[in-house]
Each structure stands twice: as C-alpha cells, then as structure tokens.
C-alpha cells in the first residue's frame, strides 16, 4: 500500500517561492569558529558558522531566505510546533568531491520527501528546486567545515516547524523553515584499528512499543515519529543492545513483522538451496520511511554489474513482509547469511545480534524487559559480503569516485 499524496492546506503558486528564493540574503558571521579535528566530536554536536532561515505567514507568504550566523530562534511560547509537534525534517549529507567542492547525494529526493512531509503535516508548500539551490549555497559557504577524511561529511538538517501562535488545535498557517549544518564522522563507533566495514550493532526486537502503524505517519519524516522511541531505546541499552528493532503485528496472520531498526531501514540476506541470495526488506506500506539510502541500495542490487564484488553472485531483491520468526528459523537452519541497516546517518551498518524481547510494565513497577531469544547472523561482526559491497559503492558514489544515475550534485 502506497502512502497517498495529500493536498496542502495553503496551495500557493511555487512561482512566489521561487521569486523569494532568488532574493537570498547572506549575512556573514563576524568571527568564524575554529574547526575541530575529525574524531574529537560526536555525531551532531558541532554546528557550523551559518544557517539558512525563511518564514511563512498567510498575509505575506514566504520571506526572502537568509543565510545568517548560527544562533537561537525566537518563537512564540504558544507556537503550534511546541504544542502539537508540527515539526518535520530531512537528513542530507555533503561529501568532498573530486573537484574539491562539496557534493550532495540525491538531494532532489530529500526535497521531494520534505515536500511530502509538509503536505501530510498541513504546512505551507515550497518549491523543491529553489530550496535546494539555497541549500547548495549554504553548504558551499560552509565548505571549510567539510572533513577531508573518507567516510566523513557535512550532515545537513532542513527543518520546518509550525509557528502559528495559538494553542487552539488545528493546522499551522505560519511556519519557519531553516537549515543547519554539522560536521560528522561515523555514526557508530569503529573498533580501534578496524575499518568502517567492521562496524556492527545489536538490536533488541520489541513489539509492545510500536514505532508506526497502518494509516499512521511512519512513512513521513516527522519529529514525533522518533521521540516515542526513547524509552524502548533506553531499555534496550540497559540490556547491552545498541538499537531497537521495531516490530508490528499488522493482523496479517504472520505474527510480529519487522519494520525498521532504530532510525534505519532493515534488510536481511537469505541463502537458497542453490546458493543464490535473496535480499529481503520490508515494503513501503506506510509504516516504513521511504529511505533514500534504502532506495539507492535496492537500485544498485537490481542493476546488473552495479556492484562488481557481487558480479558472480545471483541476487534477488524482495520487498515484502518479514516476520521476525523467519529470521529465527533461518538462523537455526543456517540460511540467514547477514543482516544490515541502511540510512543517511550510517550509510550501511552490519547487525551482529538480534534479541527478541517482551516489554511489560507491571502495575506500580517500571518497564521490564525479558530476553526470550537471541539470533546472531552467521556473518558475525561487521558487514557481510552484500552489506560490504553496498557500503563501498555508496561511499564511492557519495565521494564522487564513481557515477550512477546522476545522483551527485556539486555545491557552488
């Protein structure tokens, strides 16, 4: 089931947004911050010197965008975003390209997804190409922050929030659109002396807490999709797991189905009796975020010759429901070859352990977690052959060493 497109509450002509975007103002910071060496900061902690800001109100439409020094935003305490979580965002990355300029990876897809999220949240529409042009100018301005090390990047966070100053329940016809930038390295720690291929995480599968549900908002990039996962994440961490594997019983008779892993899309690789591999990932049924890295990985897997290290391997890709019991059964039978997660923040990361748990809150008691079963993919720590091939090719594409489908956009 595909997520239907919903109409915007305020359908202004995109020509107005384009006209305003062409009036981009740039106010440079008087003093530039020192750029810390890679490896001295964690993901998302450091902000660059500037940000992009523009606002919308029904009387004046969109303001001219402004690149200005990074700093606090002033919003009314009764703003819709603070009262009713009308907050949407995107995650993008810029890598150092062979030309010495920052290069974005499939940013048009990010703009399309942000537009879809705005429509679902009844926030004002914008022109995707015009906003992207403004973002490329911001990234070009902040290029001194881009780490030179392979696998490092600038993480770009476009955000739109509803700012209508009233506590009355309803859509916000006021909005603030802003973009911030942060230099980042690997999302998950890399073992000392190990390559990024050695990255792997453990997952605690839970069903009592549900990330998304049929007819809900799981297919959009909403802030409210993430914060309810903090409590299960803390419970998983107490048991030594890195992330939560979100399960959902959708009433299809298959029991608990795998949806996402933390904030990543999930994939499992099964080996058939003839030695051929089948890569299975849950379908985009409205409960799954349509990940851009997910789509890129599936496209590469389905394109003959796109992954040279797998050229002699027969691979089939299936987007279908994936019962968690199937992982357990395949592991016991020795046919589960590897599992991995994909996403903008992580690129591709191996999954070395999956605990299947039951979370119950007794009356007057805190959250309890009982581990029922462990499933460890046979590839062990780090990425297996399929995950490694995807990691290598996706990084080559993002850093401009390879080209596929015109996915790279240079920031100038």
TrEMBL record:
Q: Any transmembrane segments, and where?
A: none
Instruction: Quote the InterPro entries the UniProt record gives.
Output: Aminotrans_IV, Aminotransferase-like, B_amino_transII, BCAT-like_C, BCAT-like_N, BCAT_family
- Where N6-(pyridoxal phosphate)lysine occurs, the residues are 221
Q: At the top level of its lineage, which domain of life is listed?
A: Eukaryota
Q: Which GO terms describe its molecular function?
A: branched-chain-amino-acid transaminase activity
* Cellular component, GO, one term: mitochondrion
- Amino-acid biosynthesis as UniProt keyword: yes
Which keywords does this Swiss-Prot/TrEMBL entry list? Amino-acid biosynthesis, Aminotransferase, Branched-chain amino acid biosynthesis, Pyridoxal phosphate, Transferase
Q: Does the keyword Plastid apply?
A: no
Q: Which is an annotated Pfam family here?
A: Aminotran_4
**What cofactors are annotated for this protein?**
pyridoxal 5'-phosphate
A GO biological process of this protein is: L-leucine biosynthetic process
- Similarity comment: Belongs to the class-IV pyridoxal-phosphate-dependent aminotransferase family.
Protein name stated in the entry: Branched-chain amino acid aminotransferase II
Give the organism's phylogenetic lineage.
Eukaryota, Fungi, Dikarya, Basidiomycota, Agaricomycotina
